[in-house]
Amino acid sequence: MAESRPLYLGPRLRRLRRELGLTQQAMATDLAISPSYIALLERNQRPLTADLLLRLAKSYKFELADFAGEDHEEYNKRIAQVLRDPIFADIDLPALEVADLATSFPGISEALLRLHGAYTREQQALAEQRNTPGDSQGTDPVTEARRFTASQRNYFHALDIKGEELAAEIAQKGGAAEWLAATQGVRVRYLPPEVLTDTLRRFDRHNQQLLINDTLDSASRAFQIAMQIAYTSMTREISGIMRAETFASTTTNSLVRRALASYGAAALLMPYDRFARAVETRAYDIEALSRQFGTSFEQVAHRLTTLNKPGMARIPFFFIRVDPAGNVSKRLDGAGFPFAAHGGGCPLWNVHSVFRTPGEVNTQFLELPDGQRFFSIARTVKAGGGSFTQPSVTRAIALACAAEHAPKLAYARDIDPKTVLATPIGVTCRLCNRAACTARAVPPVGREILTDDYRRDKAPFGFDDG
């Protein structure tokens, strides 16, 4: 017969009391015990008896199994994760001591979690302040627009539903150009850039013509036609989404509207249900998917971040696009990747190195300072061009997901993420405490630099232990 062990649930009891908005005195009255006994229970200085557990469940209407789960294991994980911060790297922290801290000293543990949370937020704020020139007033429209899409997890149900409906109609008519002619009386024409004064797409309302730059490749042509359909046939859905929000400026309003139209265009070209099934069949092979749907590598990568439909969600991804100077021109987060709002990214991330191998897919396992691991797929993409005289721009895009999902991808089949040596990266130098990083550009916020009169380490900076 298994020996029963005392049940210490101090942190969970305290959380329950706070969620209910009760003081220790009020809870003690409800349970017919003393406030001091509640305090001892919350500090794990007394175990929770079976009788008291039953009284809790009866008084506050919850399932015993939900309340008495292995909460201390999750608490232990959170403490262990905080203590993996490189700022503690030179301190011996045995796992047994960490577990004992989480179990026996919940008050100290919670204080440590709160302090580290505040420290992390202050680091972020200081890094952004130091990397933002001047004292800018007001809200940056690009940041506000990105924040809006992130708040929706880059998924807009109404646009996907409308996109599938329109895609079915377009297929019946034989194509998007044919659908425009039949339903809107709009003729699609392809003209040279000098005629279009270097625009990619222009709608001639007077003559009911959609004019497309003829130097665009087939995927870009299809996308520009889909944009026209989104702007004219998804107006109700786009307006409905925007009416629910209030933006700080007309510029933000325009950026969000354009982002929603782009989303709608992607929903037309890659209808949700069909695309989600293809993603599973093709094991997230971006090039294979782009050929199947007649879209570009970047368009497919972008679409993969939107697959959050309830009941048909797929692997969550983070997407970023950068130029050779490191400027970020697009960012979409569906994977919880903690990208810095300001300042340069980590040069050890493969999104910055793929410029050396243009057109080739490069993969990499990443590990952040807090122990989070990701799998990154990066490749260069080209925009513009189309003729000898037309300039082109080469950028790099990266698609990243949690490392645990990597074996589901064509790029990492039969690989156990736990056995792979991941590249240690930071969000940005200002927020990374990896003292031995040779790629560091600036010291992290809050660390004092050691003088190197008599010694020079391999890393650009040495730090004291304070």
Summarize the structure.
The chain has 466 residues and is α+β, with helices and mostly antiparallel strands. Helix content is 43%, strand content 12%.
Which keywords apply here?
globular; 434 Repressor (Amino-terminal Domain); six-stranded mixed beta sheet; 4 domains; 466 residues
What would you note in describing this structure?
There is one protein chain. This protein is α+β, with helices and mostly antiparallel strands and 466 residues long. It has 4 domains: 10-107, lambda repressor-like DNA-binding domains (434 Repressor (Amino-terminal Domain)), CATH 1.10.260.40; 138-269, Arc Repressor Mutant, subunit A, CATH 1.10.10.2910; 313-432, Beta-Lactamase; 436-466, no CATH class. The protein has 18 helices and 9 strands. It has helices spanning 10-19, 24-31, 35-42, 50-60, 64-67, 71-82, 95-104, 106-131, 141-151, 157-173, 176-184, 218-233, 235-243, 250-269, 272-281, 286-293, 297-304, 350-353; strands at 187-191, 201-204, 209-213, 318-322, 328-333, 362-367, 373-384, 392-402, 423-424. The strands form 2 sheets. The chain has a 6-stranded mixed β-sheet with strand order 5-4-8-7-6-9. The chain has a 3-stranded mixed β-sheet with strand order 1-3-2, covered by helices on one side. β6 (362-367) and β7 (373-384) form a beta hairpin. The longest helix is centred in the first third of the chain and has 26 residues, at 106-131. The two termini are 51 Å apart. Keywords: DNA-binding, Transcription, Transcription regulation. It comes from Caenibius tardaugens NBRC 16725. It holds the Pfam family ScfRs.
